[in-house]
Structure prediction request, 188 residues.
Amino acid sequence: MPGPIVVAGDDVVLRTVEHEDAAFLQRSCTDPRIRYSLGSIHHRSRAQQEEGIEHWVEDDGNAVFVACVDDDDAPAGHPDEDETTPVGSFSARHVDGDRAWLAYWLVPEHHGEGYGREMAELGIDYLFSNYDVHGISAGAYEFNDASRGLLEAMGFTQVARRRESRYIDGDYYDEIQYDVLRREWEDD
Prediction:
């Protein structure tokens, strides 16, 4: 059964991560269309993913969600499996500190439908509403125009470039770092 819905938008909901989500979340480290954009260089088995859920999701310093597109008739709370379709993941580390670090991904078959922006905005609103962070940071590799464009469209400011920071699929790539401060987000 999918986890409970934490926050809902027009088309996307963020729900808690459950052990049954391991197979879906494993795509982030096995599907090259997702993995390379995240800079993930190591594959993870299902068992490793399940073990990671134990540490990553249950750590109070992290906020981790599965982004879903829900059936219009799905009830609030705990939707049934046939009432929800996972489309991505939204997470933030260091929510217990001054600055959270954002990561998100969307399965390629749902790119271009507006789900990524809604997922990110819901998650960022949730972080600023529920945690005492001063700002949120994020990074995107130079070749990931979609993610860089999304961050810039949401009001994030480019603050740094780590040159040739990651070796991905046969070449080194720069990582562009962004951030948004609470007052900037709330003023928009």
About this structure: The CA atoms of residues 102 and 123 lie 9 Å apart. Residues 5-134 form a domain with the Aminopeptidase fold (CATH 3.40.630.30). The chain has a mean pLDDT of 85. The longest strand covers residues 157-168.
